[in-house]
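Try this one yourself first.
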């Protein structure tokens, strides 16, 4: 049984990456795989959650149930945070383009999308304030100025750091969705 999180850096196979003809285009999908940095950080956060949940069990056995409930709540919040971290990214469907952040999800209907293009610009390194020169997938909307819209994907984000070919494939996939459904 193949483990998909272990095969993220395998050689590119067009049949595995492309949407199957019977897939529902109305279903939201991420046109790329989560990167090793994102999966690694989420795994470490889940490891921390396991220790906190174990502490909740020990607190329930030796301490008060109220304290155990608080520790259990903290452990479950850490699990939810790790799952939300894995869910972050760009999602596409026939209805539009969705950018899922840690706390906020924004959807742009294809009717408001003018273009999606790859641009060379300073980008944030791993989402931190430090910027480096890289590529970004920029969204141009009818109802907003381009500088008001943050980039959808960058070469130095959690999904594509050190994987320029994966960024190119993901950018091409999002651009193809925009070309097919955008501007209607």
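Now uncover the answer:
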């Amino acid at each position: 049984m193949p483990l998909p999180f272990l095969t993220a850096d395998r050689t590119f196979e067009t049949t595995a990456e492309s949407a199957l003809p019977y897939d529902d285009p109305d279903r939201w999908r991420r046109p790329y795989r989560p990167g090793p940095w994102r999966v690694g950080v989420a795994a470490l956060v889940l490891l921390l959650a396991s220790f906190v949940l174990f502490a909740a069990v020990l607190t329930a056995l030796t301490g008060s149930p109220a304290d155990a409930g608080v520790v259990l709540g903290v452990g479950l919040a850490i699990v939810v945070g790790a799952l939300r971290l894995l869910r972050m990214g760009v999602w596409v469907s026939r209805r539009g383009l969705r950018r899922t952040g840690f706390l906020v999800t924004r959807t742009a209907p294809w009717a408001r999308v003018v273009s999606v293009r790859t641009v060379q610009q300073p980008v944030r390194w791993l989402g931190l304030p430090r910027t480096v020169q890289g590529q970004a997938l920029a969204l141009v909307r009818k109802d907003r100025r381009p500088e008001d819209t943050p980039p959808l994907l960058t070469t130095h984000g959690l999904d594509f750091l050190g994987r320029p070919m994966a960024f190119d494939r993901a950018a091409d996939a999002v651009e193809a969705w925009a070309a097919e459904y955008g501007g209607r």
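Discussion: The chain has four helices and six strands. Helices lie at 14-17, 36-62, 65-87, 164-181.
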